[in-house]
Each structure stands twice: as C-alpha cells, then as structure tokens.
Amino acid sequence: MGLNEEKGYELLHGVISRDFSKDSVVPVxxxxxxxxxxxxxxxxxxxKEMADFLCISTRTVEKHRKHIMEKTECKNFIGVVLFALKxxxxxxxxx
Length: 95
Hints:
This protein is mostly helical. Helices cover 60% and strands 0% of the residues. The protein has helices at 5-17, 32-42, 47-54, 58-72, 77-86. It is globular and about 35 Å long.
C-alpha cells in the first residue's frame, strides 16, 4: 500500500502545524555539514549530486547520512527530514 501525494501532504502539514514549543531543545547535535546534507536531501539530491556540490566523495556523503540516521534514531531519510523540521534545523521555505 503506497502513500499517495494527498496523504503525504496531510502528514507533512500535521507535523509542521503541530506546536513543538515544548520540543524546541534538539535532543542531538548535528554538525553544520550534516545539516547541509539534510538540506540537499530536501532538494531531492542523490548522494552523487551532494558529493559533487560539496566537493567530497560519495562515500563520505553516505557516511554522513548513516551518522545522521544513527544520531536521530530515524529508520530512513524521510524521518530525518521530519526530525529536522520538527526541531527547526531547517525551515519549510528552505525546501
């Protein structure tokens, strides 16, 4: 069963419109580079495109992605993006 576009927007709207004031303290520290990786992911960049843009290897991008998922305890990168929105590490207008 797939997630259609309308349901995706409903889910995203629910996450963004929720009051996270009590969640304002980020439970983990992401480096500036890791936040850059998250921002590039929101622009639908693949690891190779991220690597080219950041002048690093694809393997380094993959390591960053792995570390971000471990730190945030997310199962996939969609979870990481939602985490970043929830804790205001990225803003919706940056996407």
